[in-house]
Amino acid sequence: MLKQILTTLALAACLTAQAEINVIPRPAQVVEKTGTCHITGLDAKNVKWQKDKKVKGDEAYTLSVTPKGIVAKASTDAGLFYARQTLIQLMDKDGNVPCVEIKDAPRFSYRGLHLDPCRHFHSVAEVKKQLDLMAQYKLNHLHWHLTEDQGWRIEIKKYPELLEKGAQRVEADGSIHKGYYTQEEVKDVVAYAAARHITVVPELEIPGHELAAIAAFPNLSCRGEQTTPRIVWGVEDIVMCPGKEDMFRFLQDVIDEMVPLFPGTLFHIGGDEAPRGEWKHCPNCQARMKAEGLTKEAQLQSYVIGRIEKYLRGKGKTVIGWDEILEGGNLDTTAIVMSWRGEEGGIIAAKAHHHVLMTPGSQGLYFDHYQGDPQAEPQECIGGYSTLEKVYSYDPVPQSVREAGAADYVLGVQANNWSEYIHNDAELEWRIWPRALALAEIAWSPVEGKDFKDFQRRVDGPATQNLVKAGINFHIPSVEQPGGSCDNIVFTDHRDLTLSTTRPLAIHYTLDGTDPELDSPLYTQPLQLTKTTVVKTCAELPGGILGPVRTITAKKVKGLQPASKPAVADPGLVCSIHYGGYRTVSSLQDTPDEVCVIDSLYQLRNRVPVPASVRNVRDYAAIGEGYVNMPENGIYEFRTMNAQLWIDGKLLVDNSASALQRHSRKNAEVALEKGLHQIKAVFLGGIFTGWPTYWDDAAVGYRLSGHNRWHNIRPAQLFH
Length: 720
Ligand code: ACM
Ligand code: ZN
Description:
The protein is an alpha/beta fold. Helices cover 23% and strands 27% of the residues. α3 (124-136) packs parallel to α5 (183-194) and α7 (245-258) runs parallel beside α10 (297-313). The longest helix has 18 residues, at 452-469. The protein is globular and about 90 Å long. The model is unreliable at 1-18 (pLDDT under 50). Residues 222, 241, 243, 279, 282, 284-285 line the site of zinc ion (ZN).
């Protein structure tokens, strides 16, 4: 009788307190039961942690929660570790765990996150912070990209020059960027990861992306010229020389020191983006090709990969390479292909029965990409577009691989955090979280039952609280304008302002210039603006966390600005050139060094030769001035990557205030009558935080407000 009453009481308690299952990644099988179990801790007194060979799978576990107690079973330590992570997520702050029967195992054995400390360095503490969170969400590989054109980041005792000359770079503005991990620090990180069932996979790039090593040892390259670590992003054309035995000796020495530091079997040897131009003209490379019977430089690439792969195989390692390692043929069947240039490399490799790891940038797995409209996002990114939903939507087994019966060759999935535009820990965290939660789920959970809405619910619940508790600067969507965000809009009579977010969230706004708060009005329908208004707006996550504030200035103007009627209007713009490394518009002197006429805006940025290396460029600034012929009356939005754009004597787009110059993120509108309007575009040539503005097209684009289509100003529209 007493037992019955207790059961009834337990049932009653659970009916009122039945919690939702909030686990990320979603377990393979969950049977929700009634009731809860209260525990005071995760130790053996509260939970039966049982090693059980019947639970098949290296990382599989079962978890049984009944009102009477909790039993976790796995055949491995990893399995019990993951049971523990699930239990931590199930338990509320008072120690109540909903009754549940879970049978769980990962979909993929490789669930990876990549860090690039080469472009911008990450401290050991920050790496550990990421490892902590990775483990909580069952990610089990850290791909550590340790060597690059821009910096060598791992101590090799035989070659101290690598750190002396390769671990720091002097940026174009004179600032110094540096950092490296000692072997003791590497061991510490690897052990910290291992304690969390994470394998650290080191990457030693060959034969490209190695200018920092070449800066320390010029003889590693074909021509052996003195150089310094690269200060420009992108692909360096000075690569290692596979014609020289010394180069192989160097790599083997480095590998000899790296292998004992990384006890896992996987070793990444890069292989991407290695231009072969230098090899064509190098007597050593050509002699090597002749001796080996190679007719194409692509085969020389596979020769390097093959030799180093074999050397590593001799040390018990399985190599991973970016998908270029397929080029040139002859790749050893044990080598793993990491597909990054879309899915194609992975598809070809899997069909050829290579194991593959999927990390396609096109499918959202480059976490250096924008998480929303670049015009609205608070941080500048390298480019691309990858929202939480895009990551979640990705299936790492492409349909054609499945159809070819090669699905089992897909070992897993990874997201990459290239750090060209990641300058500090806060920015790194903003890129990784919460997208890494979506990564964890596509890497672990069965593809059946995928449901973004339910995933969002779990992200916005305890997972977000956990990120807050961990002190993570995670991304919250910005408020956007559908069709294209613009901070500076105009109207002549009234304007309806529509707002949205990349996923459904509450939007707050104010119209009085103050920052929105939780009790500020909620956006429910387009804001109807009839006078000049400063709209401040931000998204709210469930749980009351506010996202970044966006300010949209909507200006009411009396009418369209009248067109000019100059006495003469010859084609082209007047271009004033100032030689020198100008980093601000205000530093331009009054008298230009040269004045000429240019036919197109494009010519603003091609006044001097710029070699692919962007070394020894004669920097200059150029101002193009004259008139632009606008095709019809209307409100126009302008965009440009130039430092400044002036229309009718007013500064319209000003990118010059930004320390970074990668994208036009300062679009602005102006109301113009059909016909000629004064235009001035200011181009500053130079390398701005790794980005040579010579790579921009100097274009000025415009579109009519409310229209999607952009037009670049054409030469036929320019007069002076
Ligand atoms: C890569 O993104 N270059 C692998
Ligand atoms: Zn060579």
